[in-house]
Specification:
67% of the residues lie in helices and 0% in strands. The termini are far apart. The model has no long low-confidence stretch (mean pLDDT 82).
Length: 67
């Protein structure tokens, strides 16, 4: 079997496994909406990380601070 035909068979099998969805970015959002969603997620992640750092600093539970 040649490599080209094997590749096509593998693609067909993969397509059958995924139910024919394939790679799509169609989440119903415009690029602007997607940017806003991603920016909000990054802000929430940064706020959570800052809160964890503040909690660790106030409790004295940082890395290597055990004396």
């Amino acid at each position: 079997m040649t490599r080209g035909s094997q590749r096509e068979r593998d693609r067909e099998r993969a397509l059958a496994r995924t139910g024919g969805k394939g790679k799509t970015k169609d989440d119903g959002l415009t690029p602007e909406q997607r940017r806003e969603r991603d920016a909000k997620a990054l802000q929430e992640k940064a706020a959570k990380k800052a809160a964890q750092a503040a909690a660790a600093a106030s409790s004295g539970g940082g890395k290597g601070n055990n004396k």
